[in-house]
Amino acid sequence: MDKLTKIVATIGPTSDSEDTVEELIHAGVNLFRFNFKHNIISWHNERIRRVNKVSKRLNKPVGTLIDLQGPEIRINMPQDELIIRENDLLVFGEDVYKQSSKGFSISHPQIIKHLKEGQKIVADSGSFSFTFEKNGEKTYLRSHSNGVLKNRKALNIPGADFPFPVLVDRDFEGLKLAERNEIDFVALSFVRSPEDILVVREEMKKYHVEAKLIAKIETEKALKHLDEIIEISDGIMVARGDLGVELPIEEVPYHQKIIIKKSIKKGIPVITATQMLESMIEKPFPTRAEISDIANATYDLTDAVMLSGETATGKYPVEAVRVMSKTVAFNERKNMVDSRKRFDFQKEDQDAIMCDTAYGLYLEYRKRKEHIAGFLAFTHTGKTIRLLSRYRPLIPIFAFDPQDKISESLTLQYGVIPFCFKQIGKKTRVNKEDIIKAVAYLKKQKLTKRGDILIVLHGEYWASQGQTSTVKILKVE
């Protein structure tokens, strides 16, 4: 049985060749992430085209995601690195360039004037901790750590709420690239409020970007507005790296579970990210704790798990994906739950009612121990597929649609195997001939066989929305 949980892999120097991209897809990658915090625009452009070329050659829908930089704060210093000792008093701000002082500035120095005495500041994912101090117009940081701080490392100000721009200049270049390459997903970093989502949606309209918008939850303020953010986003990423700096680290697992549960209930995909196989950047095998972390996210019913440095710069990118694939596939099979009891889904329209009926049939046939190969669903917008996916059945959802863009937008959805099948949908109505063609294609792909049961869902018309009208059992001939 193939895995149902999706895998997102970050493209980088150790994974950007066509051969490695193909290996990663065969190992289980469903979507490739391009991190705009690194590399120049032309580098990303070339790699996006490379992924699309391999996907087309393999005739397998593979999604693409641009992860925008957002208002991230980076350390700026005159030198490459700075040796820091506990209790050092460091110059903090642009004055560090005017005098030979020990200290550093930041990529958004204008926010320093908004800091209050005693504010906690951390750098390099929490490796360094400081307290903000003032002496007249002079600003300083009191160090509570020892070590070597490198230039351009990230800096966090937990709990702070400054008038940051939602997007930086580089992000607008990213949106242009997204439109040019028909990117499937755009991830917004450092979301603070639903207003941030609305601002970016407007910018996406200006640039004619039709991608789905993923909100990264990595700030304390985003957690306070979580329900509103989920309501207007197309997907969510649990960005545990910065979230673990903004919050006490022991609180992150709790919030991970809450974010996943609320996203599932809404019916939007959720990605669990950060340090899932961090040790495999250097080693060919994972730690037991990392395997437990992946399994835990699987039991939370996340749509996807993500690899960052493991596939971007790690020594064993393909091996990391194989480990992740095996881990989610095994633990999915041990996690049979009746999702209706767990999530209490709202049946707000006909599509939702029919998906609930289809899931009920699945449970009934499973109780009888009859082999169900999967759901066979026809879609024009992807809505029915997303509603069905939130039930987390332990069988695949074969999603057929006549458009490339819809297929690729479903690559992040739990349990969905999307097919852009242009042989169907040539007529206004969904007809018996469409179903026969779809079943024949599944048989050819060895995804079903004679005697299997398929649960079929479709509406009367191809272009109708919110009008799934048929749920039936089909025995494969």
From TrEMBL:
Biochemical pathway: Carbohydrate degradation; glycolysis; pyruvate from D-glyceraldehyde 3-phosphate: step 5/5
EC number: 2.7.1.40
Catalytic activity, as annotated: pyruvate + ATP = phosphoenolpyruvate + ADP + H(+)
Superkingdom per UniProt: Bacteria
Keywords: ATP-binding, Glycolysis, Kinase, Magnesium, Metal-binding, Nucleotide-binding, Pyruvate, Transferase
Enzyme class (EC, first level): transferase
Location of the Pyruvate kinase C-terminal domain: 371-474
Presence of keyword Signal: no
GO molecular function: ATP binding; kinase activity; magnesium ion binding; potassium ion binding; pyruvate kinase activity
Domain Pyruvate kinase barrel: 4-321
Record bears the keyword Lipoprotein: no
Family, per entry: Belongs to the pyruvate kinase family.
Name of the protein this chain belongs to: Pyruvate kinase
